[in-house]
Design goal:
Order of helices and strands: HHHHHHHEEHE
CATH class of the largest domain: Mainly Alpha
Largest sheet: 3 strands, mixed
CATH superfamily of the largest domain: Cation efflux protein transmembrane domain
Distance between the termini: 56 Å
Oligomer: single chain
Shape: elongated
Number of strands: 3
């Protein structure tokens, strides 16, 4: 039965996320401890990046659990934004930590220090193996679930970060250039910021109920007003419920005095919204238009 198959897939994804979380948490501890004892800031930076992935796994798990809860009288839209709030908290902590590591790396570049390249290579090599294995573990589930896909992409990126630390360790062993450790820390931290800041902006945009970035509001308004029988549209509000669902509400002024035509006009507007703009949750208030009393108002203005 298809319904049972979905539950099996969800259960398997949950188990893989939990297993990946345990692996990355253990790896974080190993990398931070090894970084402290070896004097490698790059290892600590990579460990912090892995800790960020632990947060992403936790968010994915909690979001999957909360997302299955039905809406109620207090949360009429459901609990879908819990994932956005959790992601923003996690990304903010990750960004602040990356900025701190950038400052530490700058200080380290201006001071003399020793780094144990052998410990760096061994530990980062272990991290590379774990991150690659975790990415392979999540690959199957990532194809049908964007939540799992985000965790998968994080681990794939971590594999590249760990590879960079391995190369830095090899360079220290061969050439004895300890400054490469700080340079690699800067690169890893900048990479984390590069990944985090756009997601932070996206999360804030959704929480501020901003319009979807891929929708031209003026084009959408023109499409609604282009439906036969529509005089104008005002009080238009377009926002994102979460990263997948959009919602819209608007007042639609109808020229046709025949009330029997109004349901067909509303259906055509909803069809345009769904097919052209992927807005499948819309609330439309239809109003009559007295041609002698008032002309259509400009977009965004209150109707007479």
């Amino acid at each position: 039965m298809p319904h049972d198959h979905v539950h099996v897939d969800e259960s398997m994804s949950d188990k893989r996320l939990v297993f990946s979380l345990m692996l990355n948490l253990l790896l974080t501890i190993i990398e931070v401890v090894a970084g402290v004892f070896s004097g490698s800031l790059a290892l600590i930076a990579d460990g912090v990046h892995n800790f960020g992935d632990c947060g992403s796994f936790v968010i994915a798990l909690i979001a999957r659990k909360i997302g299955r809860l039905p809406s109620d009288t207090r949360r009429t839209f459901g609990y879908r934004r819990a994932e956005i709030i959790g992601a923003l908290i996690n990304l903010t902590i990750l960004a602040i930590t990356s900025l701190y590591l950038l400052c530490e790396a700058a200080v380290q570049l201006m001071s003399e220090h020793t780094v144990n390249g052998r410990t760096m290579v061994v530990t980062a090599g272990l991290a590379l193996f774990v991150n690659t294995a975790t990415a392979a573990l999540l690959h199957a589930g990532s194809r049908g679930n964007m939540n799992v896909r985000a965790a998968y992409l994080h681990n794939l990126a971590d594999s590249l970060s760990s590879l960079g630390v391995v190369l830095a360790g090899v360079a220290i062993l061969w050439f004895g250039t300890a400054w490469i450790d700080a340079a690699m820390t800067i690169l890893v931290s900048l990479y984390v910021l590069w990944q985090s800041v756009p997601d932070m902006r996206r999360a804030i945009h959704i929480l501020m109920e901003g319009a979807p970035a891929d929708i031209d509001t003026e084009e959408l308004l023109a499409a609604m007003q282009g439906v036969n029988g529509v005089a104008e549209v005002h009080h238009l509000h377009l926002w994102e419920l979460d990263e997948h669902e959009r919602a819209l509400e608007a007042h639609v002024v109808v020229k046709d005095p025949d009330l029997g035509r109004w349901p067909a006009i509303k259906l055509e507007i909803k069809s345009q919204l769904g097919s052209r703009f992927h807005v499948h949750h819309s609330t439309l208030e239809l109003e009559g238009w007295d041609e002698e009393a008032c002309q259509p108002c400009p977009p965004g203005e209150r109707h007479c």
